[in-house]
Queue: 3 jobs
Job 1
Amino acid sequence: MGLNTEVSRRIPAGLVALAAALSLGCSPRVNREAVYKMGEEVKAGSVVYTVTDSEWRMHLGDGFDQLVPKHRFLLVRLNIHNAGDAETALPLLQVEDGQGKAFMEESELKGVPDALGLLRIMPPDATLRGVIVFDVPSAAYRLRVSDGGALEEERTALVEIPLDFGAPPAIDLPEPASAPSAER
C-alpha cells in the first residue's frame, strides 16, 4: 500500500508538470517589436524610416476646401528610404493608442502640403519625405512602420509619437502696475 500511495502522488505531480510544459507551447505568441523614439532611424526590413516631427491641427485647408476631423488631425512628418536593391510598395501606415486600438492614415489630404499620398512605390535607393495624417483623439501613439512585405513575412517596428501640442506662443504681457503702498 505504501508503494501505491507513492506512485499515486508522483503521477498527479507528473501530469501537472506535463500540462504546464504543453501549455507554454500553446500560449499565444507575444510580438516583441522594437520601439523607437522620434528622430531615430528605424529599420523595417530594407526600408528605413525617420519620424522627424508631429503636429496637431483642428482642421486642414481653408475656406470651402477645409477639412474638419472627427477628433483632431495628427500630422506626422517623416523620411522613408528604400535601402534595398528592389522596388518596394509601401502600405498605408497606422498609429496605435495605449490600449492597442489602431487608426489608419487618412485618405483625404486636401490642404496638407508635402503629403506623401496614398500610392508609394519606391525604387531602390530612393527617399520619400513628407507628411502622413491621422484623425485620432488627443493621446500619445505609436506609429507602426512596415517594409511592405507579405503578411507572413512583413517586418514592422514602432515609433513613439508623444502627445505634444507644442509650446504656446510667447505673449508679451505688460508689467503689473505697482500696488499702492500699505504704509500709514
Job 2
Amino acid sequence: MNQEELEINVLALGDIVGEAALNYLEENLCKIKKDHNVHFVIANGENVANARGITKKLFYRILNSGVDVVTMGNHTYSNKGIYDINDKRLLVPVNYDENTRKKGYEIYNFGGTKILVCNVLGKRLGASLNGFKVIGDVINNVSDDLKKELGKSVVSNKNSLNYKYINYNLLEDKIK
C-alpha cells in the first residue's frame, strides 16, 4: 500500500468522567480498536479526576488503555495534578489563552504519515481566544511537510475546513 492509499481510522472519544468510565475504557478499548480497525485514538480526559481535571497517574492510565492523545477542555486547570504532566500526548486547548497556544496542538507520526491534532475549546466554555482564528494560525505555522500532506488530503475534508473557517471569518466581520 503506498502513502496515498493509506487509510487511518481515528476514534475520538468524549469526556472520560470518573473512575467508572476509566475502568470501562481500560477493559474495552483494545477490543473496540480491534473490532473496528481503529488505528489512532483521541480521548478527552478533563473530567477523569472526579469530573475536575486530570492527574499524572490518571493520564498514564488513559494512555495505557490504548489512547494515543488526551485532550483537555474548560476543566484543564481544575486539578493541580496537570502541572506534573510533561508529555506531548496531553493537549490543552490551543485557544484557552495566549500561554497555551503551543501546547494545544501536536504533529504525531503514524506509519510514516503525519497526523495533526489540534484541541480547540468552544467560546462558551471559557476560551479567551477565537478558535477559528487560532486554527488558521496553527495551520499557517505547521511545517511545510505537513502542509504538503494537507494538500494531498481528501478534497471534501479540505473544503469542509475551508468552508467553516472562511464563512466564520465572513460572519465575524459582519458582527463587528
Job 3
Amino acid sequence: MGRREDLVEAALCVLSEGGLKKLTHRAVDAAASLPSGSTANIFRTRDSLVRAVLEEMEIRDWSLFQEFLGAEAVSGVLGVDEMTQVLAEAIMRMASSTQAPVTRVRLTLTLVHADEVRGGHVRLIRALTGVLESAGVASPADRAVQLAAFIDGTLLHALTVSAKPLERSALAAAIGALLG
C-alpha cells in the first residue's frame, strides 16, 4: 500500500472510532503513525480527505457487491430465490463485527455528504437493476431502489438501535417479499 492508501485507511479508522468530529489531519497522522503534516501534504483540505474516504468506501462496496453477486447473477444464472440468499448474506457481512465499523462510516458520510454520495448510489441502483432484470424480477428499476433503501435501513437499524442480531433467514424472507 502507498502513502495515500495508508492515510485513507487511517482516516477510515479515525472515522469509525470517533466519527466526523474526530477526523482531523493530525488524528489521521497519528492513526497512520506518520509525522505531523503527512496527511496535509497529500490531502490539503478536510474535504479532500473526506472525498478520498468516500471514493474508498465506494470501491469497497463494489468489491463486496461483486464478491457476493458475481458473474452468476449478472449473467442471469441466479434466480430470485438464490439472489435473496446472496443478498441476505451480503447484509450479514456488512453488519458483521469486522465490517460494521466501515458500514457505520458509510452510513454517516451518506447523511452528512449526500451530494458527494449520490453518484455512487446511482451506480449501485443501476447495477442492482441489471442484476434484478437478469433474474426476471418484475419492475427491476423500482425494486432496485426499494432494495437499496431496505439494505440501508436494515443496516442502520442493526448497527445503531437493535439489541437483536440480524437473522439470515428473516432477511432472505424480507428480500424475497420485496422482490415479489
